[in-house]
Amino acid sequence: MSSSYYKLEVSERTKLKTKGVKLLRRKGLIPGVLYYSGEKNVNIEVDKSILFHAMQSGQRIFEIEQEGKSQFTMIKQVQYHPVTDEVVHLDLMRVRRSEKMTITVPLVLIGDAKGVKEGGILSQSINQLEINCFPTDVPEQIELNVEDLELNSSMNISDIKLKNDDIEIITDGEVNIVNISKLVEEEAEEVDETSDVTADDGESEPTTEGSTE
Q1: pLDDT per residue as tens, the chain (213 positions)
Q2: Continuous segment of H or E residues that includes residue 53
Q3: Is 22 buried (19+), middle (13-18) or exposed (0-12) by CB count in 10 A?
């Protein structure tokens, strides 16, 4: 579980018109907006390289400083340039440490499944899930141990066991996460072998047409 957060340096933005925003981007700054329910939105700007490293950190909650006080935020939306794929705008949403929030986190499988060792193929259906928790409890990822998963078996969301009771999984418990099945090639070979046997059993000795007098 995360106990500290990536510190994201942001500044209040004064250039709001299109011309000013374009000038910011030329300087390597990304314009953005900081939202918080019930309060006035704040126009912000953040250095492109700083934002890149923050997004690559793997964390979901970022600590910023606003009016001399630490605030906690999460990325609400990122807009990308349609051609260059560079970030052109950022929306941050403030969160309170004393209030639970809903957030999506990565779902990671750990361990070597028995079914794979038996020759099966492992298929993972989802790689993230929604949880509800306090910002101070947001995990970098949720792990599911699949070591005991056998051939022709599966695991669902309900199979995840969390150590922290303050974290609630929002994703439906019946949603499938992973399953292990036989190799398709093996199944195809079995069908082919059966077909060959059936064909052999159906063969008959050739007959001579016509009759003799």
Answers
A1: 444 678 999 999 988 888 888 899 999 999 999 998 778 899 999 999 999 999 988 787 899 998 888 889 988 889 999 999 999 999 999 988 888 988 888 999 999 999 999 999 999 999 999 999 998 888 889 999 999 999 999 999 999 999 999 999 999 999 999 999 987 655 555 555 555 555 555 555 554 455 444
A2: helix 48-55
A3: exposed
CATH topology agreement for domains 6-95 and 102-195 = no
**What are the residue boundaries of the structural domains of the chain, listed by start?**
6-95, 102-195
Structure tokens of 195?
């077909």
| Cross-strand bridge partners of residue 169 | 131
Residue 127 contacts by C-beta under 8 Å, 6 or more apart in sequence? 106, 107, 108
At 203, list the tokens.
């063969």
CATH topology of domain 102-195: RNA Polymerase Alpha Subunit; Chain A, domain 2 (2.170.120)
Specify the CATH number of the domain 6-95.
2.40.240.10
- What is the residue-wise DSSP string for 1-15? ---S-EEPP-EE---
Q: Which residues pair with 11 in a beta bridge?
A: 45
Q: Which residues of 37-63 are buried (b: 16+ CB within 10 A; e: fewer)?
A: eeeeebebbbbeebbeebbeeebbbbe
